[in-house]
Amino acid sequence: MEIRGVLTLRKRQVLIFFVLLGLSEAHTESVRYSVAEETEIGSFVANLARDLGLGMEELSSRGARVVSDDNEKHLHLDLLTGDLLLNEKLDREELCGSSEPCVLHFQVVLENPLQFFRAELHVKDINDHSPAFLDKEILIKISESTTIGTTFLMESAQDLDVGSNSLQNYTISPNSHFYIKIRDSGDRKIYPELVLDRALDHEKEPELRLTLTALDGGSPPKSGTTLVLIEVLDINDNAPEFPQSLYEVQVLEDTPLGSRIITISAKDLDAGNYGKISYTFFHASEDIRKTFEINTISGEINLRSSLDFEVIQSYTINIQATDGGGLSEKCTLLVKVIDINDNPPEVTMSSITKTIPENASETLVALFSVRDQDAGDNGRMVCSIQDDLPFFLKPTFKNFFTLLSEKALDRESRDEYNITITVTDLGTPRLQTQYNITVLISDVNDNAPAFTQTSYTLFVQENNSPALHIGSVSATDRDSGTNAQVTYSLLPPQDPHLPLASLVSINADNGHLFALRSLDYEALQAFEFRVGATDRGSPALSSEALVRVVVVDDNDNSPFVLYPLQNGSAPCTELVPRAAEAGYLVTKVVAVDGDSGQNAWLSFQLLKATEPGLFSVWAHNGEVRTARRLSERDAAKHRLVVLVKDNGEPPLSATVTLHVLLVDGFSQPYLPLPEAAPDQAQDDLLTVYLVIALASVSSLFLFSVLLLVAVRLCRRDRAALGGRFSVPEGHFPGHLVDISGTGTLSQSYQYEVCLTGGSEASEFKFLKPVILNLPPQGNEVEKAPPF
Ligand SMILES: *[C@@H]1O[C@H](CO)[C@@H](O)[C@H](O)[C@H]1NC(C)=O
Ligand SMILES: *[C@@H]1O[C@H](CO)[C@@H](O)[C@H](O)[C@H]1NC(C)=O
Ligand SMILES: *[C@@H]1O[C@H](CO)[C@@H](O)[C@H](O)[C@H]1NC(C)=O
Ligand SMILES: *[C@@H]1O[C@H](CO)[C@@H](O)[C@H](O)[C@H]1NC(C)=O
Ligand SMILES: *[C@@H]1O[C@H](CO)[C@@H](O)[C@H](O)[C@H]1NC(C)=O
């Protein structure tokens, strides 16, 4: 643009030079006038008549006129006044451009004679143009790293005016970074240069808007402006920055995977790629990489694998933020893992005694330790066992506990304890662990065997087969094992005469009792002995029980007729007066039975009679009576056979033969009386006292006859009786003889039959009076056998 301006200027200079050459040929002298441009049309410039020395008339007569060199009619000559006036407004810039001075050459032509006058009009500049920039806006890109003092050439403005009215100065709007330096090109043209005065900072001021003003030298000066837009180009002059160098975050250890822990965010003041931050772990351990992941773009840190407070309580993570230009910054993230109660207490058994003896007190059952890996309350523990057990826990060293028995235990009441050790922590929720111990109580021989009964009574039939099982005793022992194994034995009899060893035996293992031989009720009706039960403990414990064996009678004895004697040297003959009334008591058959009970109940029955119908026998008492009145026709001698039968099964019987002689005379019952007083015993004679007593008959019973037979068998020479019978001499006390005539006695008596077996101990004996104390061995004499 400047170049074009220069060219135009030169063309005009050439033209002006040419015009001047042409004029100089015509006239050497020229008149000079000047006028300011833009002066109004018709304005007076000069009075030519006076200046040329011509008269008014001469001008008009000689046809004076003004001819411009450029043939333009800039000027007008008033022929009447001779004044030269402006024919148009002159624009200096149009006429001369930038050339200065601006001169319009013209001739004043006169005819008759032809005469030329050269003249020139100087068009003077006025400040009628402002400086102007071709562009309304100028964009300049300047890097922020540009050093101070750097200059930037600016486009210059144009001002068509010349001289002092032309462009003189440039100014820039006030700012803190630039000032304007004017550069003079030497051809009177000036250029503005922007000089960096203070460093730019893209981050603070990415762009500046300045106004460049061009000023001319007019008075007043005119100006033109343009906007200078300065774009400050960024350089990576900023590293990313973290708002804090240390981040701290607390994370529950049960945080689900994938959860966001924190988002770290750094700032980078740079723009564009230089401001793009990527986040990474810096020098991270394997643990950290495994557990966390970081989003390189957003800086979000997420949980990748589960946390475990018990393994790692905190992580120190270095995080690096790097911008696109490679600048980086670091910060530290402290992740504190917060414990949650995720570990139940643990019980570790150090020693355990599964079996303790029952009599031991405060015995150590178990030694164990507890632990909980959680922290705080989550790790504090309470240890307990059931309340209702005779055991207790005792804290010992640190977290060690002992489990002890409280007191001596009784295996027999409980031989097994299930102890549950419960350890509970105090966390939320509470976690607990149980450990079960089964403690067995071992036996100590603290219980003697116990018989099921303190005494046993066994019944046996007599005449049993030898080795017969007659019964059992049984004892139990509450202990266990060998302490409970019971052995039975017979204890030595209290009566040293009892031949126990030959009577019974016991099975040591099961307590079964056996009769060793056949028992004879008539010889031994009952006997007692003690049995012992002993366990196999150490020391052994034992107990005893009484066994009473009652021999049950068997009907093995036939009735024995005591009266009348059947084979006495003098067989009895009963005398009956012929005058006897019917029912006269002839005699009474007296019999005994060695058995007892039913087996000894006797009944009488008339089996044969010389004269049937004359005599009758009372079935129950053996009384023989006349059945009718006697007469002279009845024979004198009678023979009766009476059957005596017991009530056993099968019944046994005996017969007795009675001789009856009918006589004339008295009608008293016959009683054979001893010939001599008892105390003066006739040793040669067998003396028999028979006392027959008939008890009164009550209204309730058919009859009740109590018979007392006192038999005194005295024989000096035992051989006469085969050595079988031996009856003590003399009266028995309390024996009463009734001879009132009714044949009845109101008092009962006992009879005693003494059958001594001499030297033969094996023979049984009926012995002893009732009045005497019972012998200890229980060998009793039966009292008044009932009918
Ligand atoms: C240009 O203008 C500035 C500010 O107004 C002034 O200080 C300076 O002297 C001027 N320069 C000229 C050559 O007039
Ligand atoms: C327990 O019983 C055993 C065997 O009888 C005995 O040796 C021991 O002394 C008893 N202990 C106590 C504490 O009584
Ligand atoms: C102890 O536990 C065992 C096994 O569970 C069981 O068989 C036994 O009956 C329990 N004993 C007691 C006394 O509870
Ligand atoms: C311990 O015993 C209790 C009660 O018998 C039972 O409920 C529990 O399941 C047992 N615990 C273990 C670990 O065997
Ligand atoms: C009676 O006779 C029987 C058999 O005839 C005989 O066994 C018995 O010993 C005799 N008794 C007396 C007392 O003579």
Automatic annotation (TrEMBL):
Keywords: Calcium, Cell adhesion, Glycoprotein, Membrane, Repeat, Signal, Transmembrane, Transmembrane helix. This is Protocadherin beta 14. SUPFAM superfamilies: Cadherin-like (SSF49313). One of its GO terms (biological process) is nervous system development. It comes from the Eukaryota. It is a single-pass type I membrane protein. The chain crosses the membrane at residues 688-711. The gene is PCDHB14. It is found in: Membrane. Its main location: membrane.
